[in-house]
């Protein structure tokens, strides 16, 4: 009898061990500052390739299943948006994944040494490798070479398993856009969607790739430009992971003076497993064990965030010198928060129909160094010469002074003198062809991780949204709902009707 019990105990233990072992996979993401000091473009490229190879070795030595590198990490972004001859020089052909080619063991001269090196390194380290690079492709219709901003996935045998061409280019006139969404399966049982940087704010591909509920995780190379109050990288990426209940592996180009930064592993439950941002140049490998999800939850019920494990504790290194730009919010509706009041209940509207309701409890001293304002906007914003985005937002934002134009600007010093005991932001919006997500940011340029975000589909046309803090907040820059209204993309800048 005792023997049987021992046997059962052991079997159970083993089962638990086996279960625990396959319950997560190990992900690595690299925050990367390219070294652009060599005078020759190819020397710059191969200096950065060498750094990538040592990060792959390090991630492999720590038994990672997958390692993800940022967008434009091999070249920096400036060269590839500016010089056609450099684009050509640093480019490589990338095999069609259907051909199951392993560049490491191919003698085809169309594949650059960089592509071959990554393939060999994936094989040697038995790790999936995701790199963003310049792809050269012979276009039979144009009878010419074209260039794509491409993510290449190598599997654990160094074989090219996926090739994604960025669809939504941002000021990248030397590239042609890709067309297709893409996902790939792995030998550790996780199916990943894949897209690049700016793509995340577009329905195609960022929402379309989720139409299959088996896509539970996303790999995401990015070179984000921080733009306040709503478009800071970590804030947008976290909001996407929360609102879609998806694991997101975001590897960010890190160049604080140029506004580029924000690397993290976000979990489907809203937790941030690992995160890196600061005001100094330098690269960093983040590794974490990501829970596997068999199927994504598609329901629009409340998402309750409770940060269980604290994110990495790196100091606020020079966070004030991390550059951020500011949106021109001329057409927004503003309402100042009176810091002498302890409770505020206010509804403000942008245009006739789009209204946001705020309920706030706060404690303030007379020495508050930021003003806070309620803002509402339903309209189009000009993000680049070619990109006008339909947006809608309701938020509390920090402003450098009482001037509306100072909202989104930061002091060198952290906010002091104001503690929000509670903030609740609510609205009922048209649900058609749109997507809403939390948009939150603290002084350390990381998102808030203690709140509840609810979306309730009321009928075919309306979605009721509320976002409520569950912890007091004293270092707040932004707290609100940021929505995209896809049908308004491309319309003239200014207010649009709900
Ligand atoms: C950048 O690369 C050059 C070689 O191209 C090297 O001499 C230099 O030390 C590198 N700088 C840094 C900061 O790693
Ligand atoms: C800020 O904008 C609001 C309208 O949205 C306006 O009523 C208010 O006067 C402006 N405040 C300042 C200081 O410009
Ligand atoms: C969030 O809540 C958890 C537990 O509820 C707490 O341990 C943590 O300190 C909170 N984090 C912040 C940033 O308030
Ligand atoms: C937030 O929305 C959820 C779902 O629609 C609802 O159950 C909850 O009562 C709302 N909370 C507030 C404070 O309105
Ligand atoms: C504000 O709206 C007007 C049209 O009403 C438009 O001409 C202007 O460009 C807009 N400004 C911004 C910054 O959105």
Query: How many separate structural domains?
Result: 2
Indicate the CATH class of the largest domain.
Alpha Beta
Mean pLDDT: 93
Total strand count, please? 26
Largest sheet: 6 strands, mixed
Outline type: globular
Helix content: 10-25%
Taking Cα atoms only, what radius of gyration do you get, to the nearest Å? 23 Å
Q: What hetero molecules are in the model?
A: 2-acetamido-2-deoxy-beta-D-glucopyranose
Q: What fraction of residues sit in β-strands?
A: 35-45%
Please name the CATH topology of the largest domain.
Nitrilase/N-carbamoyl-D-aminoacid amidohydrolase
Output the structural class. alpha+beta
CATH architecture classification name of the largest domain:
4-Layer Sandwich
**Fourth CATH level, the homologous superfamily of the largest domain:** Carbon-nitrogen hydrolase
Low-confidence stretches: 1-21
InterPro entries: Biotinidase/VNN (IPR040154), C-N_Hydrolase (IPR003010), C-N_Hydrolase_sf (IPR036526), Vanin_C (IPR043957)
Pfam family, one: CN_hydrolase
Organism: Aquatica leii
Domain CN hydrolase: 32-292
Detailed description of the structure:
- The chain has 7 helices and 26 strands.
- It starts with a helix and ends with a strand.
- With 498 residues, the protein is of the alpha+beta class.
- The chain is globular, with a radius of gyration of 23 Å.
- Strand 11 (263-266) and strand 12 form a beta hairpin.
- The longest helix has 21 residues, at 2-22.
- It folds into 2 domains: 24-305, Carbon-nitrogen hydrolase (Nitrilase/N-carbamoyl-D-aminoacid amidohydrolase), CATH 3.60.110; 327-495, no CATH class.
- The chain has a 6-stranded mixed sheet. A 6-stranded mixed sheet has the order 6-7-8-10-11-12, covered by helices on one side. A 6-stranded antiparallel sheet has the order 14-23-24-21-18-17, with no helix packed on it.
- Helix 2 runs parallel beside helix 5.
- The site of one 2-acetamido-2-deoxy-beta-D-glucopyranose has 8 residues, from strand 21, strand 23 and strand 24.
- The site of one 2-acetamido-2-deoxy-beta-D-glucopyranose has 5 residues, from strand 16.
């Amino acid at each position: 009898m005792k023997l049987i019990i021992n046997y059962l105990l052991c079997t159970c233990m083993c089962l638990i061990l086996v279960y625990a072992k396959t319950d997560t996979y190990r992900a690595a993401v690299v925050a990367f500052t390219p070294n652009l000091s060599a005078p020759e473009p190819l020397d710059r490229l191969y200096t950065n390739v060498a750094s990538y190879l040592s990060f792959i070795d390090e991630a492999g030595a720590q038994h990672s299943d997958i390692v993800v590198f940022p967008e434009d990490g091999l070249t920096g972004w400036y060269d590839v948006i500016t010089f056609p001859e450099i684009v050509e020089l640093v480019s490589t052909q990338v095999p069609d994944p259907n051909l199951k080619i392993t560049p490491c063991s191919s003698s085809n001269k169309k594949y650059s040494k960089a592509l071959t090196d990554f393939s060999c390194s994936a094989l040697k380290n038995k790790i999936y490798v995701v790199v963003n690079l310049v792809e050269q492709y012979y276009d039979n219709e144009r009878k010419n070479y074209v260039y794509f901003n491409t993510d290449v996935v190598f599997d654990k045998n160094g074989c090219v398993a996926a090739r994604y061409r960025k669809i939504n280019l941002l000021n990248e006139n030397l590239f042609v856009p890709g067309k297709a969404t893409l996902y790939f399966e792995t030998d550790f049982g996780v199916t990943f969607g894949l897209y690049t940087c700016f793509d995340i704010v577009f329905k195609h591909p960022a929402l379309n790739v989720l139409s299959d509920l088996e896509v539970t995780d996303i790999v995401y190379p990015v070179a984000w430009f921080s733009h306040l109050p709503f478009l800071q990288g970590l804030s947008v990426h976290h909001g996407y992971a929360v609102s879609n209940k998806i694991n997101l592996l975001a590897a960010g180009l890190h160049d604080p003076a140029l506004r580029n930064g924000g690397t993290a592993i976000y979990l489907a439950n809203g937790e941030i497993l690992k995160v890196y941002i600061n005001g100094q140049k330098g690269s960093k490998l983040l590794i974490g064990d990501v829970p596997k999800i068999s199927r994504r939850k598609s329901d629009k019920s409340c998402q309750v965030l409770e940060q269980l494990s604290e994110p990495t504790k790196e100091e606020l290194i020079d966070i004030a010198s991390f550059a951020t730009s500011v949106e021109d919010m001329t057409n927004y509706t503003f309402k100042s928060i009176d810091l002498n009041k302890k409770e505020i209940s206010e509804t403000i509207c942008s245009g006739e129909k789009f209204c946001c309701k705020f309920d706030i409890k706060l404690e303030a001293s007379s020495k508050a160094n930021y003003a806070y304002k309620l803002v509402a906007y339903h309209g189009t914003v000009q993000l680049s010469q070619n990109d006008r985005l339909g947006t809608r937002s309701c938020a509390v934002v920090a402003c450098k002074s009482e001037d509306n134009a100072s909202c989104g600007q930061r002091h060198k010093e952290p906010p002091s003198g104001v503690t929000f005991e509670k903030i609740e932001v609510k609205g009922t919006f048209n649900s058609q062809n749109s997507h809403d997500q939390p948009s939150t940011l603290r002084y350390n340029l990381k998102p808030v991780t203690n709140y509840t975000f609810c979306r309730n589909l009321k009928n075919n046309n309306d979605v009721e949204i509320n976002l409520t803090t569950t912890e007091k907040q004293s270092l707040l820059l932004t707290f609100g709902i940021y929505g995209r209204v896809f049908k308004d993309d491309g319309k003239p800048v200014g207010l649009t009707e709900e």
